[in-house]
Write a structure and sequence with these properties.
Helix content is about 20%, strand content about 30%. It has helices at about 1-10, 25-30, 100-105, 135-140, 145-165, 180-190, 215, 220-230, 255-265, 285-300; strands at about 40-45, 50-60, 65-75, 85-90, 110-115, 165-175, 195-200, 245-250, 270-275, 310, 315, 320-325, 335-340, 355, 360, 365-370, 380-390, 395, 400-405, 410-415, 430, 440-445, 450-455. Strand 8 (about 245-250), helix 9 and strand 9 form a beta-alpha-beta unit.
Length: about 450
C-alpha cells in the first residue's frame, strides 16, 4: 500500500494556490514607524583598526514595554567617508557575533550584528529584551508571533543605521541565517531601504516542508489559514525589494530544498541561487566569500554573479545525455561542476551528491558541457550545476530531476523536470529528450522496468 501511495504521489498534480490576504491587513499586522529610533552606547573600544560600539536601541513593544535590542556596531577607525553598511541577523539559538561584525568591518563596511529579541533556547546570553526566541513563540498563530517582533527589530536596526554619520544610508545590506534568513525575506519584502540582501537557508511555504511539521500538523484550519495568509514569508515573495542571494544546502534538515527553491522561483526581485552539495544546516567559513562578493557587487559596484543558464538537454550520437550551461559573461566564469544524486524528489536530507567535471569548456561563449552516462539514470537522478567567478562569487542552477521514460510503443527516452518545488513529484513542464510533448502524459514508476511508464492524459 505504501508503494502504491508513493507511486501515485510521484504523478504530477495541480499546484496549490497560496492563500491570499489584503495588503491592508498585512500592513496593519507588520506595520512599523521607521522614522527614527532611540539608541544608546554602553561601551566604546578599539579592536585593532576597528571601532566597536556596544549599544542598545528600542523596538516593538512587548507586554507594554518597548523591547531593548543589543548590538555590536563596528566600523574602521580610519573612516574618511560614509561606508556601506551590513545588518547581520542570527538564527535560532544564536546571538550577535562580534567576531563577524569586526571581520566584515575590516572589509570596508560599517556592520551591525544584533541579538534578536528575548532569550529562549540556548540564548541565555542574549542581551535583548522582548519575547523569547522559542519554537512555540515562532509558531504562535496570532498577531504576537515572534517573527513580527524580530522583523521590527531588523527594520529598526535599518533605521538606526540610517541615523549614523558613518553610514551611507543609500547602501544598506542585510544577511540572515536560518530563522535570520526567514527574517531577511520578511524584511526585504517590506522595507525598500535595503540595496542588497543574503538569505541563508530561510524559506517560505514552511507548512509544505520544514522541520516544524508537527506544529503545522496540529494547526486547525483557521490557524493554518492565518499562518499562510499572514505570517509565512510566501506573502512577501512578490514584493521583495533589494537583490537577494539565496543560499542553501542540498541536505538542510530545517528548510527543505523544494520549499527553498519554490521561494526562490517565486521571488520577483533580482536574485541569484547558490545550492551547496551535501551541506547540512551549517554556515561554514568559506561561505562568507560568496556572501561578501554579493555585497561587493551591489553595495560597491564591483561586478560578479553573472549566473548560469541551463541550455537544452539532449542525447548525443553515442547516447550520452549532454547537459550544458552558459554564463552571461564568459571571461568571468572560473569553473563549473555538475552535481548529481541517485533517486527522485524525496528523502532530501539523506541524499549523497557526486560531482562531474565538464567534458568541454567553450570559454569564448562561456559554455560548459557535461556528459551523463545513461547507466547513472536508473531510474532517475537529481542534478544541478554550480559555478564560481573571478570575484569569488558562487552560484548554481536550480535542482531538477532527470528520469528514464519507457514509452507505450516500448521505446526509451528521458524526461527533464522543471526546477523542483515540491516533494514526491516531478515539476511540470516535463521536457522529453526525444522531442515528444511531455504534457501529453502521466508518468508512473515501474519497478520492473526501472523506468517511468507513460499513459496519455486524454
Amino acid at each position: 500500500m505504501r508503494i502504491i501511495l508513493t507511486l501515485l504521489a510521484l504523478i504530477w498534480f495541480l499546484p496549490q494556490t497560496a492563500l491570499a490576504v489584503s495588503s491592508e491587513s498585512l500592513s496593519e499586522l507588520w506595520g512599523l514607524d521607521q522614522s527614527q529610533v532611540k539608541a544608546s552606547v554602553s561601551k566604546l573600544y578599539d579592536l585593532g583598526n576597528i571601532k566597536v560600539e556596544e549599544m542598545h536601541y528600542f523596538s516593538r513593544s512587548y507586554n507594554g514595554k518597548p523591547a531593548r535590542i543589543f548590538g555590536y556596531f563596528c566600523y574602521p577607525s580610519n573612516l574618511k567617508r560614509p561606508l556601506p553598511a551590513i545588518l547581520i541577523v542570527h538564527g535560532g539559538g544564536g546571538g550577535a557575533s562580534r567576531y563577524r561584525a569586526v571581520n566584515w568591518a575590516k572589509k570596508g563596511y560599517a556592520t551591525l550584528a544584533i541579538d534578536l529579541p528575548g532569550k529562549g533556547e540556548r540564548r541565555i546570553n542574549s542581551r535583548s529584551t522582548g519575547p523569547d526566541m522559542e519554537v512555540p513563540n515562532l509558531m504562535d498563530v496570532s498577531s504576537d508571533n515572534y517573527l513580527i517582533h524580530a522583523v521590527a527589530a531588523a527594520r529598526n536596526a535599518i533605521t538606526y543605521l540610517t541615523q549614523r554619520k558613518e553610514v551611507d544610508a543609500h547602501r544598506l545590506g542585510m544577511i540572515g541565517l536560518s530563522w535570520g534568513g526567514v527574517i531577511t525575506l520578511l524584511t526585504n519584502g517590506q522595507d525598500d531601504r535595503l540595496k542588497a540582501a543574503v538569505n541563508i537557508f530561510g524559506a517560505g511555504y514552511l507548512p509544505e516542508g520544514s522541520t516544524w511539521q508537527e506544529y503545522f500538523d496540529s494547526f486547525s484550519k483557521e490557524q493554518m489559514d492565518f499562518w499562510c495568509s499572514s505570517l509565512d514569508p510566501q506573502n512577501f515573495l512578490a514584493t521583495q525589494k533589494a537583490p537577494m542571494l539565496f543560499v542553501t544546502g542540498t541536505n538542510d534538515h530545517c528548510y527543505y530544498l523544494p520549499t527553498f527553491q519554490k521561494s526562490y522561483e517565486q521571488a520577483t526581485n533580482d536574485k541569484c541561487l547558490w545550492v551547496i552539495p551535501n551541506l547540512k544546516h551549517r554556515f561554514l567559513p568559506y561561505m562568507e566569500n560568496s556572501c561578501l562578493a554579493w555585497f561587493e557587487k551591489y553595495l560597491k559596484n564591483r561586478g560578479g554573479f553573472e549566473g548560469l543558464t541551463l541550455l537544452p538537454v539532449y542525447l548525443s550520437n553515442n547516447n550520452e545525455i549532454i547537459v550544458s550551461v552558459k554564463a552571461k559573461s564568459a571571461e568571468e566564469l572560473v569553473n563549473a561542476k555538475l552535481y548529481f544524486s541517485p533517486g527522485g524528489p524525496q528523502q532530501w536530507t539523506h541524499k549523497r551528491w557526486s560531482d562531474l567535471a565538464p567534458v568541454y569548456k567553450d570559454y569564448s561563449q562561456g559554455i560548459f558541457y557535461f556528459a551523463l552516462s545513461p547507466q547513472l539514470i536508473s531510474p532517475e537522478i537529481l542534478f544541478f550545476v554550480e559555478g564560481q567567478d573571478i570575484f569569488r562569487g558562487s552560484f548554481s542552477t536550480p535542482v531538477r530531476s532527470l528520469f528514464k521514460v519507457k514509452l507505450e510503443d516500448g521505446g526509451l527516452t528521458y524526461g527533464l523536470s522543471a526546477p523542483l518545488k515540491n516533494y514526491y513529484r516531478h515539476e511540470a513542464p516535463i521536457t522529453l529528450l526525444n522531442g515528444m510533448d511531455g504534457q501529453r502524459f502521466y508518468f508512473m514508476l515501474s519497478a520492473k522496468d526501472q523506468a517511468y511508464r507513460t499513459s496519455n492524459r486524454i
